[in-house]
Structures are given as structure tokens and as C-alpha cells.
Amino acid sequence: MEGQARPVVDARTGRAGPPTAEELGHGMRFRLTPEQRLLKKTTREFLESEVRHLVKEDKHGHGVFPEAAVKKMQEQGIFGMPIPRKYGGAGMGEVGYCLVAEEVGAVDSSLATILGAHTGIGMAPIWLFGNEDHRERIVRPLAEGTALGAFALTEPTAGSDAARIKTRADRDGDEWVLNGRKIWCSNGDRADYILVMAVSDPTLGAHGGVTAFVVEKDFPGFQVGSIEDKMGIRSSSTAELVFQDCRVPKENVIGKVGEGFIVALTALDGGRASLAAGALGACKELLGRMIDFSRKRRRAGRPIADNQAVQWKLAELAIKIFQNQHIVYDTAQLVDRYYHLIAEGHPVPRALRDEVSRKCAMVKVSASEAAGWAIEQALELFGAAGVRDAWDLERGFRDEIIIEIFEGTNEIQRLIISRDLIKGGNFW
Amino acid sequence: MSPPLVKADARRPLVVAIINQVPDLTYLRIDPGTGEIDLDEPDRVLHPNDRQPVESALRVKDADDAQVLVMAVDRQGAEEGIREALSMGADEGLLLSSGATRHSDALARANLLAHTVRHLPRCDAVFVGTETMEPDWSTVGGAIAAILDWNLVPGGREVRLKDGGTHGVAMYGAAFVRYKAAGPAVVTVRPDTHKPRWPTTWGVRDAYRDRTIQALNLTDLEIDGRMLARMASLTETRGQRVVRERKKETETFTDPPEVSARVIGKRLARDGYLGGF
User: Fold this and answer.
1) Helix, strand, or coil (residue B46)
2) Does B7 fall in a domain?
3) 3-class DSSP state for residue B108?
């Protein structure tokens, strides 16, 4: 009939319905594939049934590392998400990793931190910049869940200004000798393999003078120092690492000698995307709890959900979740493309590298601040009930604030974004 | 003719797990106007109780090096259900597509499933969940066993293969008894039998990228759709809706008897009381 749209029959359901944007050629693929939906669903069910009850916090002593939970997650394949199947991983890319990180973040920020330190910044750069021997010998056990990884960059005198690290690496025959101290190393005391940045040539500065090494936990000269007693994410362990004439075989150099800083920056970029996914999961968890509470909690004979002030909070958080969901997964797809080029040894355009850095910084700021905002709103909504341990909001408050600080403070992220814009980066 | 089960190795034991799928409750939508569940929601998942027959079959795989074939009758989202079972560790999927059985009853489905099992290169046991899809689904296992003339193991657990037969524990009445049966068996599995394994991330990936699902229709299986419809019991589920009582009407047919019979038959078929017209 003239002027009437042709009915389109859905290939899966056999039902007639209006054409989708994709069928009309206007689509931007923002929908999960059936594989990704199944991954998300099964991960959520697994975490709710098998892990949530294992995550406990000792508020008074040092945090309790959730060993049983981590082991179960390792056996489930959660610790090898982006690594290709042939190296023992799930082969589901950064998008698959972020989907899982989101679900883990919804359960516990400490677990999300352990997962992120292992996967995003500990293991992924070894896969990206390592050779076949590294991928078989080091990445495989990390991806298969039989070993734990970590990343060590920060030092007492070099935090946000990471280019100023002082840990030295001196060549001695077939070995390198490391001397120095690293702090704020998540998983540092638990890890089997730690990706460590050290100065191999002080005359060349960060670009050219820093090399990436994998230090194994039983290497002579390596020892774990003090464990941080933190305000939040207390179940993840944060360690000081001490290298005193620590001998590292030359086979454990990741990438080329002198190119460690690019390894570190790539690790941090990708890590920020998954960190944002974890914060997004925390936001979703909080929204679910806020809706539930506002329906049940009655004031003056009516549920507090009837109050506009409550409705605005819920709506505002839903908007933030909607925004972050799109930018996190759009960025994760970009990281996948970026990682593919690096892993396959293709040249990486500078513009792509800058775009990845900028967007990963953006999602880290956006999602972490959304999570921080969400927990404040949740506490206001819950009122006195929120400060009771039973709701876990008090713990969430201490946890979510930290996301704005670690893996590069949000202030530093804003500098990364603005500097790229000023130098002419394409802000689309 | 055997269906093209390309990967099944006739030298290794083969066990079948039969599954159903239901709407994903996580994303369940309720029509605020009517209060009814929106059954057009596209996401379908493996019925939670149907993880039981899959788990039982996988335990046989672990113990006896069997191959596990997951089988589902074509309904909306059947492929997702099979993929979830594959992600738990099953080897292959078989989707039986048939317009004639789309809304047919348990007996018709049992006939279709039994007919398909007969076409497999070999089959040592069939696992069917109880209390899964709808109340009558609990009868499917028994019906398959009767049609195939196989042993029926009700409420089976710890089932193993040995010397061409099965042995394990079965539930008779309220008692669990050890049993041993010669020849293949249909095992019905209750919802509380095992703690089903979780799909791993590797399993999810492999289920979508490495495992195959064969889609077979009635022609592939050499089944006459009209015959299958006649095999169905006289009761039929015709969707979930309230049927308004109609005013009784009398109609007189004045055409020759053979023409009138054809008209009446077509109307009955249209209304779902008869198949094959």
C-alpha cells in the first residue's frame, strides 16, 4: 500500500513489527550480543549465589583478603576475560571484561579492585607487549586462574608524576638487578607475577629510560613490605614492595628495553575503562537498593517513593547510569581495537593512542564520580537506616570515594583530557 | 536416513539432555495496564530446573567419557536455552523445528523427541527434567520411554553407564532405591537432584563460537506432520488466555456430505482441534 511502511518480520520471533534503527540503516550498535548477555547473566547469578556471602570485611584489623571468593572466580574464568582463548583466557575482549567487572563491582568494590589489578594492569600489558614465551609461561597461568597478577609503578616520591620513578634496574650479564621500593601495589603481597617499572637508563628520562619487568614472587631480593591499612576497599590488599638486589632474568623484560613507560601508560588506560565498569556496577546496585527501600519504607502512611524529592534522586541516578553505560562500553570497544593492533604487532596511530587515553580518563572520572554521588544520595535516602551495617552503605561510602583517587586521581584524569584537547585532539 | 549429527562419535557413549526455555525473569516486564506478564519479551533462558538434566548428563560425561547432546523443541528463544546448556559443558545442540509442534501438547512433543532419539547414531540415556515447562511436562519422560520401549528411571541420580545399560539411584514413591537396568533408559530428573555447575566464561565463549547447533525439521526426520498432530492427545494448550464462553450455535450444512465434512474439518483445524487439514 502506497505510503505505508512494509511490515518487517522479526527473524527470531517471527513477529511483525516496526523496523529497527539497524534495519533502517541508522543503527549504532549499542546492544549486547546474545553471547555477551549470557555472560552477564551467568556472571551475575554466579556472583550472587557463590561469592557475595564470602565477601566480608574486618573493619578493625587489616582487611580480610577474600581468598575463597577469588579462587571461585578464578575457576570460573573471570580472571582471564580479555586474553585470547589460545593463551588460556576467555577471549571475550575488553567489552567482555567490562561486563564482568560491572557485575563484580556491583557485589564488592574490593573484589573489583583485585580483579582490576590482576587483569587490566597486571596481566593485559604482558599479553600485549610480551613475546610468545611470556604469553605461554606467564599469561597462561594468570588467565587460567592458577596465578594472580599485580602492577607496580607508584613510589614514595612518584605517584601521579609517575615519570619520576627511582627504582633502578642495572644489567648484569643475563640478568637485571632491581633496587628500590614500590608502594600502593594492589595484590602485591598475593601476586605470583608482578609487572614492575624500573629505570634502566636514568639519562634518557621516562621515554627511553624506563623498562618493564615481570618479577616472580620467589625471586631472590624481592620481599613484601608493609600492608596498607586503608579507609575503604579494605578486603583488597595494598602492599609495599621492596627490591634489594633483586635478580630478574633478561627473559622477563616485557617489550623492549627502555620502552616500559608506554607499557605502563597502556596498562593504566585500559585499567581505567574496567575500573569505570566496576563503578557503573556499583551505581546499578545502589539504584536497585534505593528503589527497593523507597517502595518499602513508609512515612506518614505512604511509601517514601511517593515523594518527589526521592523520585528526583532515583531519576538522576538512572540518568547517570544510562550515560555511563554508553560511554563505558563505547570506550571498551575502542580499547579492544587498540589492543588488537598492539597484540598483533601492527603500528598504532598516535591519534588512536591519544583517543584511548582521553576516553579512558573520561569514563574513569564520569563513572567514579557517579558512584561517589550515588552513595551520598543513597545515604540521604536511607537516613538513619543507612548508617547501620545491615545495609552495607557505610562500607560502600568508604569504598566508592576511593575510586575517584586510585589509578590516577580524577584531577590527573582531567589534566589528561584537557591537555589532549588543547594540543588538538579530536574531541569526538 | 540419520540426521546430520556430524560430530557425534558412534564409538563413544551418547547421552541426551532435553531442555526447555522460559522468559528471562531478570528483565521480565509486566504490562502496567493489564498486570499480565509480557511474554513477547525476546530474551529467553534455560529453565532453571532444566539445568538438572544437563548436569546429570554432564556427570555421565565426566565419569564415562560420554558425549552430551542437548535437545529442544522449537519455541521462542530455544537457541539461547541450548547455548546456555552448551556453556555448561554439553557438546552439541539439536533444535527440532516444527510448526506443527509449536503449541502442541506433551504427547506430541514426546513423540517428536522419541522419533529423533531413534535417528541418533546411538543413544545410551535420555535425561528429562520434571516440573520445568508446564505441569504436563513431567509426563514427557515417561511418554518418551513408553514410545521407545526403554527403561524409565524416575527421579534418577548418580546415573552411570555400564555394559550397555545404566545403573544408579531412582526414586520410587518416597524411597530412593539403587537400580540396575539393561539397555538404554529415560531418566527423569527432579529439580533438587544436583547443584548444577555454573557456565564458565570459557564455556560461554565456546558455546557461541565453537559449538554447533543442528536445526532439524520434520522433513529431515522423515516425520509426517499430520501424523504427529494425530499422535497428540486430544487436549491441547492454546496459549495462555482466558477463553470467553461462546453462545452455543447450531449450523446446518446442506452441501453434499463429503463437501460438508471437508468444511467442518477445516474449521476444526483452524480452531486447533484437528491437525492436517
Assistant:
1) strand
2) no
3) helix
- Is it the case that residue A56 has pLDDT exceeding 90? no
Instruction: Inform me whether the C-beta atom of residue B199 falls under 8 Å from chain A C-beta atoms.
Output: yes
Q: Locate CATH 1.20.140.10 in chain A.
A: 260-422
Contact A362, A414 (CB under 8 A): no
Cβ distance B201 to A38 less than 8 Å, yes or no, reads no
Answer CATH for A260-422 from 1.20.140.10, 3.40.50.2020, 1.10.1040.50, 3.40.50.1820: 1.20.140.10
* Residue among A42, A74, A83, A119 with most chain B CBs within 10 A, to mutate: A42
Residue in B26, B80, B205 closest to A91 by CB:
B205
Q: How far is B110 from chain A (nearest CA, A)?
A: 24
Q: Which of B204, B206, B209 to mutate to test the interface with A (most CBs of A within 10 A)?
A: B204
In tens, the pLDDT along A361-415 reads 999 999 999 999 999 999 999 998 888 767 778 888 888 888 999 888 999 999 9
Residues of A involved in catalysis: 407
In whole angstroms, give the CA distance from residue B17 to residue B15: 7
| Residue-averaged pLDDT of chain B | 80
Q: Give the closest-approach CA distance of A357 to chain B in angstroms.
A: 28
pLDDT at A7: 43
**Chain B CA closest to residue A78:** B201
User: In the beta sheet, which residues pair with residue A212?
Assistant: A197, A254
Q: List the grid coordinates of A27.
A: 543503527
User: What was the ipTM of the complex prediction?
Assistant: 0.87
Whole-number Å distance between alpha carbons of A361 and A96: 20
Residue A6's pLDDT band, with cuts at 50, 70 and 90, is very low
How many CB pairs (< 8 A) connect A and B?
Answer: 68
The pTM for the full model equals 0.85
Whether residues B76 and A77 touch (CB distance < 8 A) is answered with no
- B225 and B255 co-located in one domain: no
Residues of B in contact with A75 (CB under 8 A): 200
Gyration radius of chain B over CA positions: 20
- Could you say which DSSP state residue B39 is in? T
CATH homologous superfamily, domain A151-254:
Butyryl-CoA Dehydrogenase, subunit A, domain 2 (2.40.110.10)
Q: Using CB atoms within 10 A of its CB, is residue B29 exposed (0-12), middle (13-18) or buried (19+)?
A: exposed
